[in-house]
Amino acid sequence: MTSTSHPHVVQPDGTRRATLAFTVPSGRRRVAPVRFGRESRRDPQLPQRIRNGLLDDEGQQCVQVRLTAADAANPAARALLDAEAGTALRLHRVLDDPEHAALFPQIIGYELDTTEPFLLYAAPRGTAAARTHVMSASDQRVFARDLLRALCLLDGQGLVLRGISPATVLWDGTSVQLWGLEGVAHIGRPRTRWGRAPYCPPEQRRGEGFVDSRDAVWSAAQVLYQLVTGRPGPADRAPDDLAAHRVLAETLRGAFAPRAADRPTPAGLLDLLAPGAARQLTLTGPADDEYRPDREAFDQALRLKRQAPAAEARDGNSGGRGTGSVLCPYCLEPIQLDLTALYVTDSRMQYQQLDVKGITNALRRQDVMRSAVQKCTADPDFPEHFIPVPYLTYGRPLTVAMVGQSSTGKSHLLTQMIAEITDGGLEPFGLKWQSVNPEQHARFVRERVQPLRNGKVLDHTGGIGLDGFARFVESLLITDARGQVRPVAFFDLGGEDLVRTDAALRFLLGVDALVFVVDPALALPLPHLDHARERWGLEVNRDGDLAFGTVLDRLPKNGPYLDVAAAMVLGKADLLRFQPPVDRWLGEAPPTTLDPARVREESRDVHGLLRRHAGQAWLRPFDAIRRCTLHVASATGGQEDHGRYPTGVGPRRVLAPLVSLLAMHGVIEVPGGAEAFAVGGAAARPSAPPPEASGSGGEETE
């Protein structure tokens, strides 16, 4: 991340000059000299600041909405600006009718991954309705019609604009322009407190229930009442004198009902004012047929996978406690518990042999054994290696390996994945965790989790030792809802090591699950990623990730598909947070239940995005592996600047790929069973599209 403007130069007339670099809605970069006027807060209760400007390269009047560096350090403030940007860009994308587009602010550009993020809009049209004393009857109808048209257009996108008030509705004498896009919420999500009485509805003021399109109807009715009467209405009921105002009584029937369920919808209210007007509001956007080939390709791929016979499990993955042999994840030879080959580390981190025969106290013996490792001698020609004892006492470990080039962000994704587990992220799915080796886990938290959470960029993966074979990154004991315990081991290998190190490839023969991490800067030739590619010195690779192909070619194949469980992750998704369909998923709250239909819907969306823009080479893991889901995730929530994340890190959806893998291995029980979860049942149907997300929501204020 680099600075996007030169320091302001204050002129004698009080204006400030600067040079701005920003992204325009098409995704291209623009650099322009700009002159700014005085700055003020747009709303005293919100962090955004606003100032008028003039882009000198085209003489274009504009308004900048920005955060100071101090405000931008607050994740909630950045989330508000993200939400506003996402809504403005979506409306720009779907509203190609100038009459409809004029109902909302026109976004010129944005720069959000910087220490002082900002949006640029074209100059507002009109003045705030708060400055209008009393409006004439003829203007009232036009004002009401335009306001309700705007609400209907938002409703069509699954959005509700909270915070509507006389300060956010502009009027130029002929039409309305609706501002305050930072207050957007998604229909069906829990309400949070936002706005001021009497303009916010009672249930929104209390933060009760779920967002409803009829929330905005209350707000619109309150604004109209004030414009007609010159005074605000009651905060929890219809005005007593409503019947005395004929236009209001005709058009606002039920709009002041204390409960959203008793109010008309925006479309219903608009049709009262202008019969048939709601049906004429259509959003053009991308034609549905444009994406049909991508959806059909995904569905056909799943049909073929369902028709292919499932390979027999290569191990008895019962997850139960036992003392039989397991496969060493290093040398791939069978190994079983040997009490004469146990070691612990001393204060100098040197291995010292452990004699457990003299430990008669059962509890102490169990605790010592948990921290011990066993020297594996199954292959005398293999370099020296040690296995944590719990791997030999809880059944076969479930090994998970990250795959991808070194620039993909695998290490950050894996670190945040494990951090969320230790924060209780698996508890909603009935799972509990415990470290396999307390010393190893403490070191991982100290050296990986804490630095990343404190905003430090992690070093590149060091998963291959001088002896050339793979090493554990971290390991946990996972207890499922039935009380069965299974070790889960995580490996993170640098992409270049997978290509050049045969021992690493041999290790992959015994892996149970793979996470293929796709770097959007390498895969997607989208114009708004050009700036990131330029900063990182990358180019689009139409041939896919070399590490993917190397791993897939080495894995054992039994039938038409590889049967290892896999998840493909479109990482660094914060770079795509305004790009459909990523914007549908990235802002969603973490699920508390695992819905196979929702997982397939996300997989279909990511598959379609990669198929359309990246090409089939990037989908090779999905095409080659029978059980493979696709996800979006962001390990950091933003971009780094000189080795640090200036405003900290905010992971999003990092646990979803692992949850999917655990379901495929039966650790998490899902409707229809693990097999149906992975490839769909014979009667599986696509789920309804999830509500789209324009940003991350953020904290709200009242």
Number of helices: 23
Q: Can you summarize the main beta sheet? A: 7 strands, antiparallel
Number of strands: 25
Shape: elongated
Residue-averaged pLDDT: 86
Q: What oligomeric state do the depicted chains represent?
A: single chain
Q: In angstroms, what is the radius of gyration?
A: 29 Å
- Strand content of the residues, in percent? 15-25%
Through-space gap between termini = 33 Å
Structural class: alpha+beta
Strand order of the largest sheet: 1-2-3-4-5-7-6
| Unreliable segments of 5+ consecutive residues | 1-6, 315-323, 462-468, 683-702
**Helical percentage:** 25-40%
Q: Could you walk me through the main structural features you see in this protein, from its secondary elements to its overall organization?
A:
The chain has 23 helices and 25 strands. The chain is of the alpha+beta class and 702 residues long. A seven-stranded antiparallel beta sheet has the order 1-2-3-4-5-7-6, with helices on one face. Strands 20-21-22-19-23-24-25 form a seven-stranded mixed beta sheet, with helices on both faces. Strands 16-15-17-18 form a four-stranded antiparallel beta sheet. Strand 6 (107-111) and strand 7 form a beta hairpin. Helix 4 (137-156) packs antiparallel against helix 6 (214-229) and helix 12 (410-422) packs across helix 13 (438-453). Mean pLDDT is 86; it is low at 1-6, 315-323, 462-468 and 683-702.
Short key terms for the protein model shown above:
disordered C terminus; elongated; 32% helix; 702 residues; 7-stranded antiparallel beta sheet; 7-stranded mixed beta sheet; alpha+beta
